[in-house]
Structure formats: C-alpha cells, structure tokens
Amino acid sequence: MSKGWQRIFIPLMAVVIALAIASVIILFIAEVPGPSTGNLWNDFWNQIGVRFSFLGRAFQAMFEGAFGSQFAWMNTVIRMTPLILTGLAVGFGFRAGVFNIGAEGQMAMGALMATIVAVNIPGLPMFVAIPVCMLTGMLAGGVWAGIAGFLKAKTGAHEVISTIMLNWIASNITNWAVTAPFATGSGTPKSPEIAVGAKLPILFSIEATFLSYGIIVAVLVAFVMYIILYKTSMGYEVKAVGFNPYAAEYGGIQVSKNLIMTMAISGALAGLAGTLESMGLYYRFYGTLTSGKGFDGISIALIGQNHPLGIIFASMLISGLRTGSNQMQFIGVPKHIVTIIQSIIIFLVAAERMVRTIMGWDRKKKVKDGLAKSAS
Amino acid sequence: MKRLFVLALVLLVSTVFFGNFIVTMVTDTGGLGDQSFNDGTWSGIKAAEKELGITAKVVQSYEQADYVPNLSNAAKESRVVVAVGFMMEDALMQVAPQYPNVAFVGIDIGDMGIPNVKTYTFKEQECAFLAGFLAAAMTKTGVVGYIGGIPIPPVQRFEWGYRSGIHMWNKLFDDDVTVLIGYTQSFTDSQKGKTMTEAQYSQGADIVFAAAGLCGLGTFEAAKSAGEGYYAIGVDVDQDHLAPGRILTSATKGVDMASYYAVKDAYEGFFEGGHENLGFIEGGARLSEMKYTRNIIPKWILVMLKGLEAQAIAGDFVIPDSEAAVEAFLK
Amino acid sequence: MPFHIPEPSEYPHYAVVMKGIVKQFPTVLANDHVDLYVRAGEIHAIVGENGAGKSTLMNLLYGLYTPDAGKIHINGKETLIKGPAEAIKAGIGMVHQHFMLVGPLTIAENIVLGEEPLDSWRFFDLKAAKKRVRELSETYGLHVDVDMRIEDIPVGTQQRVEILKTLYRGANILILDEPTAVLTPQEADELFVVLRNLTDKGKTIIFITHKLNEVMAISDNVTVMRLGKVTGRIPISETSPRQLANMMVGREVLLRVEKAEKKAGEAVLAVNGLHVKDNRGLEAVKDLSFTVHQGEILGIAGVAGNGQTELIEAIAGLRKKEKGKIELCGKDITHSSPRDIRELGLSHIPEDRYKHGLVKEFPVYYNILLGRHYLPPFSKNGFLRHKQVYERAKFLIKQFDVRPPSILMLAENLSGGNQQKMVVGREIDYQPRCMLVAQPTRGLDIGAIEYIHRTLIGLRDAGVGLLLVSMELEEIFSLSDRILIMFEGEFMGEAKPGEITLEEIGLAMAGTPLAEVRKTEAASAGKSETTRVES
C-alpha cells in the first residue's frame, strides 16, 4: 500500500474500529422491552433482534442527522466553519514545530475584538465593514498568539504553558466583557448585536437555520494555507524550522523570527474562526462562543495530518459526528454515550501509530525494505 | 362548513388520542445530572409522561451552536418542546416562529411575545429571602456566604433575596450578621465552587449558599469535609439529600411544577402563549422540607419563616428584585 | 601460516566461537552466517567499514540482541545468551563507544554501581568498594584515583573506568567497541599497553575498529567483515594495511589522495583575536587568529571538544562572538546572520549532518534547496519553482553519485555516506569562495571517504579556500596544505604536513606547544648524540 493511500486509509480504519466499539456499547445499552416468553431460546433471539434493530436505528439516526437531508448538511457545514480554521491554526503550528494549544483563547479574543468593532460601525457598507471586522479578528488572535511566540523566541518559555495561561486570561477578559461593560439583554451573557453591514451574507437558509458565506471563507483560507505550505519559500522555511531548527538556522533561516510569525499566523487563523462565528452565525459575541472549538482544532489537525485539505475533511468528520450524534439522542442514546463514541473515534484516529502497529504495516514494510537493500 | 369543522375536530381528537404525543426537552450545556435545574424540569415532564401516557424525550446540548439545530429537530417531531435555561433564550426566539404549530415552553426565560411560546420565570428572591433569614438565624460566627455562578438575572435575584433575608433578621433581632459575596463565573466548574467555599469558610463564614449550578456540588463537598458546624444551602431543587445534615436547606424554584403544568395544558388543549412569573403564591419559590436538618433548627425559627412567607404574600413587605430595591430595602 | 579454523574438539582452547550467526533487522541483513573464532588470551580485531555488521555481532555476543540463527560457544561450552546479565555471568564484558558512567559519582562508586559491597548493616560499604577497586587497578595496571569524580577526569581515564567496571564484574572476555575513537594518539598508546597487560593476565580481548594502523599495532589475529559477511580472517603477522583495506572495501583503494603542490592566493577568510563561549558559558575559543587563502586547505587538528565546533559555528554565524573580528573576502562578517554570510560566499559542511546539515524528514530535493530556497532561480516572488529545484537536484545527485538516485526519497532513508554526499554536493553547488569543512568523512566507508577527499582537493585546485576540521589525523595529513593544532581553544602551533611527525602532532594535541615539543626533541636527540659520541 502506498504512503498516500495509508494517509487516507488510517483515519478511515480508525473510524471503522471506533464505530465497531461504539456498536458494542450501543448494543449493551439498548433498552429491551417485552416480558419473558418462558422460553430461554426465544428470549435470547428476541434480545438479539431488539438490540440489533436499536443499533441500526442509532446509526441511521446518526447518518441522517449528519448528511441525510439538506437541513442536516447545513448543520454539519455550519459547525465545520470554525473547526476548519482552528484545525488550520493548530496544524500550521505543528508544521513549524510549535504546539499552539491556545487556539481557544485566540479564537475568543479574535471574536471579541471583531465584535466590538462590528457593533460600533453602524451604517458602514458591507464591502468595508466585513473586511475591517475580519482583519480586526485576525489581528487580535494573531497578537494574542504572537505573545506566546515572542516569549518562546526571546526567553524560551514553552508555548504550551504560555498559551494555556493566555487561554485563561482570554477567557476571563471575554467573560468580564460580556457581563459588565459590553453586556446586553437577558439570558446568556452576550454583547449587543453587530451592525447590519458587518453581518456575513447568507448562502442558504432553512427555517430557523442559516448558513453564511463563512464556510466559503474558511475553505478559501484552507487553500491559501495549502499554497503557502507547499508552494512558497515561506512554507519551506516554516517546515524546515518545524522539522529541524538547527538545520534551518544553518540554512540561513531566522528561527526566532519564524517562530513568532508562525504563532501569529496560527493565532490569526484561530481569531478568524471566532470572528466568523460572530459575523456569520450569532451576530454577536457570547461568553460561550468558543466552547472548546479551539481545542477541537488539536484533534482535527492530528486527524487531518496537518495537511490543509486533510483538515477540511477532518472538520467534516468531527462536525458530522457532532450533528449526527445529537440526532442519536432522539432515539434514546444518552448524551454521555454519544460523547464516549466521539472520543473513541478521535482517540483512535489520533493514535495513528497504534493503528499502524495493529495492522503491522511498519514492521512488514521495514522488513521488505531491508530485504530489498541487502539483496541489492 | 360544519362538516369541515367536524372533520377538523375528529382529526384533532384522533391525533391527540391515537397519535404519539411527543414532548422533547432540550437542555442547555449544563445538561441532565446537574441535580438541579435540568433534572428538576425533567422530573416534571416525566411525571406528566407517566400520568398522561405521552412520550418524553430529552436532547442535551454540548455547546451554544447546538441550541438552534436541537430545538429545530425537536420541533420537527414533537408537539411540545421544552427549552430549559436562560441560555436558550436567543435560540428559542429564533426557532419558535418557524414552527407555529408546535408548543414551545421556556423555563427561566422571560416574556417573548410569541403566540406559541409559554415562558416561565421564578421569583428566586422569595425563596432566597427565607434562606437568608434562616442562615442569619443559624450562624454561630455572624458571617454567612453567597456564591453565584455567572451574574445573570436569575442568579442575581437569589443574591438580592438572600441579602434582604439576612437584613430582615438583623433588623428584627438587632443583630449584625454580615455576608460574603462571590461569583465563580461558571455553572459547571465544581472545583471552583469548592475552593471558593473553602475560602469563605476560612474568612469566618459557617453557612454558604451556592446559586451556581454544578459549582454547588463543590460547595457541598467543602461543607462535608469541613464537618460539624459548617453548612451549605442548596438551590433550584431539593438538594438536601446530596449531603445529608450538611445542607441546611435548599432554596427551590418550581421548575418541575412549571414543566408539568405546561405539558399537561398542551396535552389537554389549553396551551396558551405568554409568560408567568412564579413565586410564593403559586408555589414557584419555597424552601425545601429540610428532612435532615429540621431537628437542629429551633421550632420558633421555622414558625417565623412561615410567618414571613405569609406576610410577604399578604403584601406587608415586598422582597426586592433589583439592586436598587435592595438598597432601598436595607435602609 | 594461514588462520587456523578450529575443529569442534578444539573449542575449549577458544574463548569465543560464534558459528553461523544470522541477524535480520527490519531494514538490513546485518549478519549473514558469520563465524568468529577468538583464541583464549589473544587480542582479536574485527575490522570493517561502518555498517559491515561488527557492532551487531558484538551486541549479539553481549546479549543485547538475540541471533536469528547460529550458535555461540564460550570457552568450549555452547551458551545461550539472552541478555547482558547472562553475558556477564558467562564472563563477558563490553566497553561501549559511548560510556555509560554517572558524572557526579566517583570512580569507585561508578565501578561498583549495581553490585555494591554491603556492610553488616546491609548498607553501601564505600571503604570496601574503594579497596576492591584499588586492588583491581593495581592487578591490571589500570591506574586511577578512585576518589575522583567522573565529570572531572579526561576521556582516556573514563575509558579505563569502563574497563575496570567489566573486570569488577568478573569479565574474562572484554569487548571494546571503537575504543580509540575518542583518544589522542598518546592515550591510545597507553590503552594498548593496558590491553597487553590484560592479555598477560589471561584475559581475552575483542577489539572493534576501522583504523588499520591500530589493528597492525596491537592485535594477534584479525577478522574482516563486509556487508554482514566475513571476507577474511588472518594472523596479523601475515598481512598489511593495504591487504586489509582491500578486504574491507572489496577493491583496491588509495589510502592517500594525490595532490599537486599549489601556491596559495589572496586571503579569503581572516579571523582576528576571536573569543567564543560554549553552551555552558565557558570560553571555548581563546583569542584565535588565522587566515585561509584562496586555493589552500588549512587543517585544524585536535582531539574532539577542544573548541573546534565552537570555532566553526562562530564563523558560520551560528554562534555568538564574544570578541574579535572575522572577515570574509575583505568584508566584516563578525555580526552577520548565517544568511548574509552564505550570500557572501561561505559554505559549510557541518560537523553533525543530522543536526545541522539536513532535514531528515525532507526529501532529497528539498534538502538540496536548503539555504537557497528564497533565491532565484528556485524562488520567484516568494513562490517555489519546483521545476528548477527538481532539475538542479537531479543534476547534483547524479554528479555526486548519491544512491539511490531518487530526489523524492526522504533524506532519512539514505545511508550516511549518501547523506554526506548530498550535503557536500549542495554546499559545493553554492560555488563558494570559502568553505568550512568539519568532519567531512565521519562515519563513512572508505569508498565514500575517497570520493569526498578527491572532491575537496578539486575545490582547492579551483581556488576555493577551505578550513578543515577533523579528528582523523590521517585526513588532516593527506588533505591539508597547512596544519594548525588546537588544544583547549588555543593553537599549539602550525606546521606543514611533510614537516611534522605523527608523534609531534600527538603531543601538541595533548597540550604541549609545538615549539616546546621540538625543543625537547632536539635536546634529547642532542643528548643521545652526545651519549653516542661518549661511548
């Protein structure tokens, strides 16, 4: 099997294994009605029948909930939008050898700043307001991550620690903003609604659900990132620093400048994720706007193997899983089981090595190579 | 015309009696198992399910982005959709008008003016008032504590009532009980609830009232490990059994009652949009029965609590429901 | 008398007999039916290029791996060795290339570590430990100060400690893996004396190396390996370095590179009063000044860790300079970035190709791009021009004979020699005016060494100035036009390769200034002359 195929096959295999494990769980939790018929054999077959039909309905609900209708597709795509961007944020960092665990905070800061601007520019026409707000969000996220990059480059402070700390600061700043100076209305802590001109136009809508042009932006950004990584000198530098900073420095690449820039770009992507949520989905900032999507970026980057196109598919997988599994609740699979199934899939996909080992690819391949080498 | 009417009636009746009457509850991110708000609402719906033979379902949300799709999906296959929690307010506003034939019930959500939406809020200040009075009566240190989640109106109403209750005690008995106020900025982080409670204990408080969702579980933990002489006060539903003997009382809201009657009305065809604010009179705000702590509370205090409730109902005084009203009340 | 292959009945006279050993690794067949016969009480050398399977064979003997097939007889008895513990029990000890010592502990503590003598309270008995170690060291003539800490003693002494460690554990058969790689010539000579002492006391020694002069100097018999097979075994008295080299490589090799005398041109690299600190903040380069001219190779000889690494890194712009001035073709580059320095015409074959020289996760063509990824014709408006890169890479790997000739292969999948050829090819393709060359042939086999040496000479002849740092004296001698000897960050003297002996260089590498060495030599020579006259 060629390497390219393995890259696609491994995540798929992991999903299949995870679904198999999930099936076993669902088979066990199925509620089995019906009195005993007094015949053990019949009871046994009844049980099997009921449990498997429940399993079938559960998966049907999951699939239909994610991709089964236009409405389902829309929900899946709405969720994909921020996930693509946080996945790109973390993945781009991985490429440069930095672990940006702070996409969550960068996303929050980006969304908050973009919203503050968007609320205060009533009357500005769309073609000005939208770019201004997006750039604000990207700048805010970029600066927030850039702090961690700067600290790493200048003092060696590990970015995992500093971005986690920055997450807390961002979380407190945004919570404070929507409960005190920037609060409005009742219900969830939230900002006022953004100006009409800053709202992203709507692509489709069905009933109460609408999909904005945010998804187009996210996919375009993924293509841009692909081009940067694979077609430009800058991408070359980023990857060289990520794989071997010593060799990069030797090759005339400024490692610390590269680190700061990578972090800033990564943060800008996360900031854009938050900005699109505000401008295209909620039309305001919520205290709970990010709700873990920054952290989801980590698993998405892993599943997508840090490749921009892989990340698009990984986001679709995760978001399909989320929308679909919500639907499973309607037929009686409890929320926690749904969460467990999701976690198993992410775990298995991320634990690529494990799958490789189970499948024995590494060993076989090496032995084959070795024989070839010694024969020549 | 008459025929058409009869046909419509038959159709209606047949769907009511023979079709599957589905009620779906959609929770916020807190979800079931909070031993509080969501569980309380769900128990009301379950009671209705048992009594009326309808089908009850629950869908729990992971994140803000789930609210709209979950409410929409629920509306597609249910007759009644119950949205639980103030966090759903915006989503409910967005979804309900799209499904005019579905009855929407909002728990802890203010008036929306949409014909197919019935919302309920509660006079949290009323039960909190009694809790504050009781805490002030029972404290040995002269200091009591209050821990809120995110400072949103229902949580703030608990604070206002609690402070007023303490003040009432101080005024009647010329006492000087003070209160420590803290907010965890979360409804889910029970660890934060625990550390904040421990901090208040160490500052001299011996009774802490937690109006902070799951954070309250941390408060109960702290009360348990602090042991004799330290108490917590529960919130939303009767939480006394979560730490028997360590929870003085719970300031409960009638979420179960509201969801039960809303579903029952809808089933029987009496559903009507609008808003209700439930307090002492409706049974929408009260203290728990204090199963485990009754014996340590002097009888006369229990009698006074009853008396205060009666006076409030009678309109002898008004329990404040805003910061300004509290200021006025304290004077 | 050719090498005697013993019958099974003779095995009791042999300390080690390995018969038909096969070891398959995932990527390579490391040992292919290898036989080894080591007589009790001899020094037996195993020679071969890197990757010939010498170390694998010894690791099998020491129980670090288990063979896929084959039998091992220790002192005539067939023995199954499943791990180092069993090897030690069978009387086998191994001194690895990288020492396994604990820096902050004393010599005595290190030696007894894991098998400490205990007192009646079952506590560690330091006194008894010291006594045992002293006894051992006297018995075998391995003199050490038992109270010194490992981190304070020189490498040669650390090696003795490793040998003592194996003796303490009762080893009768000692395996030494490339023992002289880290030693000065003098230290190596001392080691050989120690080894002779040990065999006199009845120990058997197996000695792995790829340095033929050492084999000739010390061993009794030699087994030559190539590509996992034994290609020859011969008593040392009946062979020559040339014959051994041919057995190792499988063809005739040139041990010395031919080079024409050449007149050096104008200065390309001038270093003046340079001071550089190492990673620990200690001064590693102390006030060095020298000049490299067009068309010359200036060699720096010295034992590893005497400031050569820091010197090269400082010139390349990879390390901060404390004081001094560096000029490249007349331009001050003291504080320039690596990129600017490269652009001025300095290229660099780094000492550690894995760390600096290549990105092992990148394919070959990306590695060839390193350092020029932003320059035309490989980059235009910030975009890479893959077509140009491919073409250049294809040309270079053909010209420099990188195998397999696939530009898409990941660098990590190339063998060491081919990686080095790739790096050398890239650095030459810069068309530099000056080149830093550090350890250009480390870990390479003789074929690759020969090729790289010829290439470097070619550069010199084309007028490039080269600064060569190498731990291999042979290499310094055969390539350099001038030699500087470095010790603890300072130069001990300068010489031309024809005008200095190996002994003189060795003494200078150990810290005696060359002038003094020559003075003493002259004095003693004078003395001996006088003696002669008197008698």
Walk me through what this model shows:
- The complex is a heterotrimer of chains A (376), B (331) and C (535).
- Chain A contains 15 helices and two strands.
- Chain A is an all-alpha fold.
- In chain A, helix 1 crosses helix 2 (40-67) and helix 3 runs antiparallel to helix 10.
- Chain B has helices at 2-17, 37-52, 67-77, 89-95, 124-138, 153-173, 190-202, 215-226, 255-268, 299-314, 323-330; strands at residues 22-26, 55-59, 80-84, 103-107, 117-122, 143-148, 178-183, 207-211, 231-236, 247-253, 274-278, 285-287.
- In chain B, helix 5 crosses helix 6 (153-173) and helix 5 runs antiparallel to helix 10.
- Chain B is 45% helix and 19% strand.
- The termini of chain B are far apart.
- Chain B is globular, with a radius of gyration of 21 Å.
- Chain B has eleven helices and twelve strands.
- Chain B has two domains: 2-122 and 255-278, Response regulator (Rossmann fold), CATH 3.40.50; 124-252 and 298-330, Response regulator (Rossmann fold, 3-Layer(aba) Sandwich), CATH 3.40.50.2300.
- Chain C is built from 18 helices and 22 strands.
- Chain C has helices at residues 54-61, 84-89, 107-112, 126-139, 155-168, 185-200, 212-218, 241-249, 308-316, 338-343, 353-357, 364-369, 386-399, 416-429, 446-461, 473-479, 502-509, 514-534, and strands spanning 14-24, 29-39, 43-48, 69-74, 77-78, 92-95, 173-177, 204-209, 221-226, 229-235, 267-277, 283-293, 297-301, 321-328, 331-332, 346-349, 379-380, 383-384, 434-438, 465-470, 482-487, 490-495.
- In chain C, a hairpin with a 2-residue loop joins strand 17 (379-380) and strand 18 (383-384).
- Chain C is globular.
- Residues 528-535 of chain C have low confidence and may be disordered.
- At the A-B interface, helix 3, helix 6 and helix 12 of A face strand 2, helix 3 and helix 4 of B.
